Amino acid sequence: MDKVISENLMEIRERIESSAKKSGRTPDDITLIGVSKTIEAERVRSLVELGVHDLGENRVQELLQKQPLLADLNPRWHLIGHLQTNKVKYIIDKVVMIHSLDSLRLAEEINARAVKANLTANVLIEINIADEPSKFGVPPQNAMEFAGEISKLSNVKLRGLMCVAPFTEKSEENRIYFSKMRNLFIDIREQNYNNSDMDNLSMGMTGDYEVAIEEGATMVRIGTGIFGARDYSQ
Ligand SMILES: *Cc1c(COP(=O)(O)O)cnc(C)c1O
What we know:
Helices cover 37% and strands 18% of the residues. It is built from nine helices and eight strands. It has helices at residues 3-22, 41-49, 60-66, 88-91, 104-116, 143-150, 175-190, 209-214, 224-227; strands spanning 31-35, 54-57, 76-79, 97-101, 121-126, 156-162, 196-202, 219-222. The chain has an eight-stranded parallel sheet. It starts with a helix and ends in a 7-residue tail after the last helix. The chain binds pyridoxal-5'-phosphate (PLP). Pyridoxal-5'-phosphate binds at residues 35, 37, 58, 80-81, 164, 205-207, 221-225.
């Protein structure tokens, strides 16, 4: 058992619990997604064995490489990074949720592949909540209309919203963005679109997950806080 991962995880779970309480919820209301990008399979295995069954990868190729190595544990894989249309076919039946839906073209390809595979694809709309030019995601002001378009696709189920908030040393600075996400989430949910079940708000990473939970996150995506700093050279 990996002692560092185990200790980090214990601390994160405590923090999730106290943030959940602050927003009138319990830890059971929050799904911790362990972000395993760049982390070798054996260390990811330790995390799953400690009870984290939801894993997030941001690259298709890495996900496909790692998945067979952990197949015996049957974790739930989430695609959290930008997804190119031509890669949808490789992951359509391999992930439980795509967090990064950011264009109609991508939604249509996901739908076509889902129809072929005879399944329903669970998706979150990625929102570029701070209008950062460097980030992917639908502009907040277009999100409602986009959700309406997706609802016409038979095999795509809209399950909520996702964002990557700006990088900051001061997590409080992101509170306004998480709060905007929650308002947008509620507005779209109230529309009761076809093929939608708006029950997930995926926001908060190592630097800001506590604030995100206080503002209503139901899923947090944490990598560095669990595994330590990533080494991109490998
Ligand atoms: C890498 C990544 C994370 C995790 O980031 P940490 O700061 O290491 O917790 C979360 N979400 C997405 C989309 C990522 O690419």
